[in-house]
Amino acid sequence: MPTLTFEAARECVVEQVTRNRTAPAAETVPLAEAAGRILAGPVFADRDYPATARSIRDGYAVRAGDTPGRLRLIGEVRAGQTYSGDVSAGECVAIMTGAPVPQGADAVVMIEHTGRDGDFVTVPEAPAAQFINAQGAEARAGEMLLEPGRRIGYAEVALLASVGVAAPAVYARPRVAILPTGDEVVALDAAPLPYQVRNSNAHALAAQVRGAGGAPVLLPVAPDALEATRELIEQALDCELLLLSGGVSAGKYDVVEQALASLGASFYFDRVLIQPGQPLVFGRVGRTFFFGLPGNPASTLVTFEIFARAAVELLGGATEPVLPFTLARLTERFQHRRGLTRFLPARLHGTDVAPVPWRGSSDIPAMARANALLVADADRDCWEAGDLIRVLLK
Ligand code: AMP
Ligand code: MG
Predict the structure, then answer these.
(1) For 224-265, what is each residue's pLDDT tens digit?
(2) Which helix (DSSP H) or strand (DSSP E) does residue 272 occupy?
(3) Closest ligand to the CA of 292
(4) What's the pTM?
């Protein structure tokens, strides 16, 4: 079974899921519920944008050739109205932002750049710009403005509303089963004994799945036993994706891979050169893709973000899953051992980043204090204070 670098593992996930996914069903949702969903069809301009030439400043509609000069004010046009006359030589019309430009005028002079003298307006200088958006300058009627596969964010909501789409067609959310494993894992409302932990992973993963556009399906905790684990995996096989947490290390009671293998699974990799999260299993059983995520909470959360999120997005019909990397300036010297790509809790403040002290992959409080992950490349071991380093936004 191959061990992959971070980059190769991510490429493998994107390629396998893109190649083997089935197109999700489409449904329509009210626009108010569309944010975060993936468009299932193209969106076209229903008319020219703007539909008629519009002023983008408050001022006077003029003939540019008349400026500088003294112009007769013949009327006014405001947003929501239209001016029926023409602007002839030596004339101007008071105009407000968003109002249609009267016939004859070809520029708007900002009110701040004019003087007023009874029925006359003085324009001391020719306008530096036209301050008119011509009909169709933003989009032409019939033009495709959004392609299917695009995630609907706030700007896409604005666009859908402006072209009159009250109920866009979106892809159905992929169903993502979440199967925590571990004899030590107890429910949230249990009083854990000192050697037990509450099932935080399932809840964190459910939130991550929802954020990625999926519909989480929570399964009960599987004990560290082959038969019971296999039975619970079988319950997940009508979902598009299965996320297991725990049970993928080399310990005597880590039975996840064995359980998957006994169901005829194919494995694409079971180890990635990253930290946290080296043991990490990706494969497919029947038509269900699966990730065996390491159980330590920081490992589970991080490996979801850098691998499983892309699978959820692709299964939901997204065209190009992106990892929101950016560069930030380290506030202190940072060292690590080469060989692994590390994703460590960090605080991003403006364009500065500082590592958050942590006690390793079990340290949930440190993960919660972080607002970003610092990404230490596998082939570099030292960054000085002030150096740029990669950061993954949280
Ligand atoms: P494992 O990957 O199964 O060796 O698990 C590693 C550690 O992760 C365990 O010792 C637990 O402390 C922790 N862990 C495993 N599953 C969960 C879970 N569902 N919620 C919170 N912590 C977990
Ligand atoms: Mg375990």
Answers:
(1) 999 999 999 999 999 999 999 999 998 999 999 999 999 999
(2) strand 266-272
(3) 1
(4) 0.91
Residues 160 and 163: their CA atoms lie apart, in Å, by 5
**Ligand 1 proximal residues by C-beta, below 6 Å:** 180, 182, 184-185, 197, 199-202, 245-247, 249, 294-297
Coil, strand or helix at 236? coil
Q: Residue 314 — φ and ψ, nearest 5°?
A: -65, -40
Residues 6 or more apart in contact with residue 166 via CB below 8 angstroms = 30, 31
Specify whether the backbone of 24 is left (phi greater than 0), alpha (psi in -120 to 50) or beta. Answer: beta
Phi-psi region of 251 (alpha: psi -120 to 50; beta: other; left: phi over 0): beta
Rg (Cα) of the chain, in Å, rounded? 29
For residue 314, the model assigns a pLDDT of: 97
Beta strands (DSSP E) in 82-212 are: 91-95, 107-110, 115-117, 120-123, 132-133, 144-146, 169-171, 175-180, 185-186, 197-198
Cα within 13 Å of Cα(326), Cβ side: 14
Please give all residues whose CB falls under 5 A of ion ligand 2, grouped by chain where several chains appear: 182, 246-247, 295
- Which residue type sits at 171? Y
Measured in Å, residue 220 CA sits from the centre of ligand 1 at 14
SS3 210: helix
Question: In what helix (H) or strand (E) does residue 201 lie, and over which residues does it extend?
Answer: helix 200-211
Who contacts 386 (Cβ-Cβ below 8 Å, separation ≥6)? 329, 330
Strands 43-44 and 54-55: unpaired
Task: Give the closest residue (by CA) to ligand 1 atom 3.
Answer: 246
Copy the structure tokens of residue 263: 């169901």
* pLDDT at 320 (0 to 100): 85
Rounded distance between C-alpha atoms, residue 311 and residue 214, angstroms: 10
Peptide bond into 324 cis (omega under 30): no
CA neighbor of 23 nearest in space, from 246, 212, 172: 172
Maximum Cα–Cα distance across the chain = 93
Contacts of 266 (CB under 8 A, 6+ apart): 283, 284, 285
Report the nearest atom of ligand 1 relative to the CA of 294: 2
Report DSSP state, residue 330.
E
- The token duo for 283 is 């494969």
Which residues of the chain carry a pLDDT beneath 50? none
* Short-list 218, 223, 180, CA closest to 199: 180
